[in-house]
Every structure is written in C-alpha cells, then in structure tokens.
Amino acid sequence: MGKRLFLIGNGFDLAHKLPTRYLDLLKWLYENDKSTFNNLNKLLLGNYDKKRDSRRYKESLSKIEDSIQGIDEDTEKEKGFKILKSFEDPYALYAIWQSLEDYLYLVFLDEEIENAFLERESIRQTLEDEEYGQVTEEDIDVIYRPEQEHLDKLTKLAENFKYDLEHWVDTVNDKIPWIYDIMENKNEHGKKKLALLPDNYFTEDDYIINFNYSNTIEKLYLMDNVFHIHGKDDYYNPPIMGHTDSISQMGIYDERTLVLVDEFYKDFNSIIESNNDYFSKINNVGEIVVLGMGYTETDEIYFKKINKMLPTVKWKLYYYSDEDLRKAKGYVDDIGIESYDYISLKEDSPYTNIVRYDLDD
C-alpha cells in the first residue's frame, strides 16, 4: 500500500477535547491580558464599522454579517459571547472571532493612520513647494507627531498579541497528558474520558503535516515525525497566525503601516517555498488521509500542491458537518482530485479507542 500522508486540522485537537478554537484564545486573553483583549477588540470592531460599507472591503466583510445571523440564544449564553457584551456590537465581534485570522488585518487598517498619512503628505508637499530641499520622514516627524505615536501603540499591540499567542499555545500543550500517564492511571470507572485513535494508527514511516500548533500527536501518539507547517510551541518555529488577503490589494498608503499588516499576513506561497525540502522528500505514498480539516478557502493551496505531487493517490476526506462535506466536494472539483472517499466522522469515526482514567490536572 505504501506510506500514508496525513493532513491534520483543528478538528483533530477538538476531538481530543482541547480548547483550540479562536474563541478559546479570546477567553484566554480576557483572563490573562485584559489590556490586549480590550485594545484588540476596540480596533477590530471600530475598523469593521468603518470599513464594512467600503467597496474595497465589502465583499470580505459581508461574511461577518452572515455569521451574525447564526448567533442564537444558546450562543449568547456562552462565555465567549458574554465577555464581549461590554463592547458596542458583541454580535459582530463574536462573528469576527469565529474566523479571527481572516480579519486580523482590521486591527491595522485604522482610519486614524490613513488620515494622518494624508496630513503628512500635505506637509511634505508644502515643504517641497517652499523649496525646502529633500524632505525626509524625520523632517515631517518634527512637525507632525500624532501618527507616529499611534503607530507606536499599534506596534506594541502587535508585539503583545504575538507574545500572548505563544503563551496560549503553551497553556494548551500543558493540558495534553502524555499517553504514558494515561495508561498508568487507566481506570474503567475513571472520571476522565478520551476517545483516541487506535494503537499504531500513525507509524514512523508516515508523513504527518499538522496545521495545528499543539503537540497532541507527539504526546498522545508518541510520534516524532510531525511537521508543523504553521509553527508550534517553539522559539525557532513560533505559531503563524494571520490573514490571507493580498497586501498589494489593500490600498494601504503608509509603508510603516504596511509593515504591521505584513506581520500578520499568512503568505502560503512563501510557506510552501520555504518548506520545499520537506515536500521534496515525500515519496511512495499510497494514501492521503485528511483528518480534522475544515476545507477552508485558505488551506486549499496546500491540497493543490499535494495533489500536483501525488496526482494518482487516493484521498480519504473525513468530514464532521454537512457544511464540511460541501466544502470538501468543492476542493475535489476545484483541485481535480481523481480518487477519493468522503467519510463521515459521525457515522464512521476513527476515534475508537475509548480510554477512561484518573489524572490530576
């Protein structure tokens, strides 16, 4: 049969009862860094309000309106919604946080920055008209400071958010028990229950591309052949979180603002190119298994890359909801996958190894 290539998404961590949704990050920020929580949400909401009727952003932001329609009474009782009620529009914020990466650019597309830049350009033009000579940014800073002060605040917010993201990932990994400890404390009447994949589900010969930041596979399945394509809890390979909107199409005027937006731009082409050494070593694959993926538009580029490398290999596409199935079928059609099976996690779950155990948190 050959080796297997696994593509592992966030649904995998959720199946192992880990708090790895964007809304879990929101709650972590609320409990651990109120300043970043408040500043980030004010900018997300404020810039959403300013941009949602803009022709440039209307199409992408319209998805937020669609998500708001899905918020019901049960959702309003959740902690993730309750902690946003102090903001003017908690419904919009909740919808943004459900797909946070798609909207991180809103933090830095601040109208105050854009207006300040126009003012700076006016100052530059005045100085040049008066034959001041070569006008530099430092010259303008002497005359006009508010914009730089605001940029300093945004830069600090970006640093704090990245720091918090790494620490949140660290706390998630702390919640993952080692399989050794589970087995040592196994008890058929144990208070903790976990549905695991069967023993030897993964092997050392497999290729495992993990889109998650967590060490779930390493700790619960003792695999050391896991490739974290979007980073992990590692100083040299930190988590990559960001939007995927093309910066060149955003119409950002100030290069310094562009640098901030760029910090939270997930450039998939660059990620693939920088990891070509890994992809080039994938060979003798007999099956591709997709587990825990939501089949979003942003991840499709990886599937295209793999299908181009392995055009005749059969895909096993696991899905959780009807919406996931619809998106998976869209992948198959768009990419041109020739051999595939759709497998419902509700009807044919691979998590068949049910373990009960007692283990202190």
Describe this structure in words.
The chain has 361 residues and is α/β, with parallel strands linked by helices. It has 18 helices and eight strands. Strands 4-3-1-5-6-7 form a six-stranded parallel β-sheet. A two-stranded antiparallel sheet has the order 2-8. The model has no long low-confidence stretch (mean pLDDT 88).
Which descriptors apply to this entry?
361 residues, alpha/beta, 6-stranded parallel sheet, 50% helix
Short description:
The chain is α/β, with parallel strands linked by helices and 361 residues long. The protein has helices at 10-15, 22-32, 34-51, 58-69, 73-76, 79-82, 90-98, 100-103, 111-129, 137-143, 146-174, 179-184, 216-220, 255-263, 268-274, 276-280, 300-309, 322-335, and strands at residues 3-8, 192-196, 207-210, 226-228, 285-291, 314-319, 340-344, 353-357. The strands form two sheets. Strands 4-3-1-5-6-7 form a six-stranded parallel sheet. It has a two-stranded antiparallel sheet with strand order 2-8.
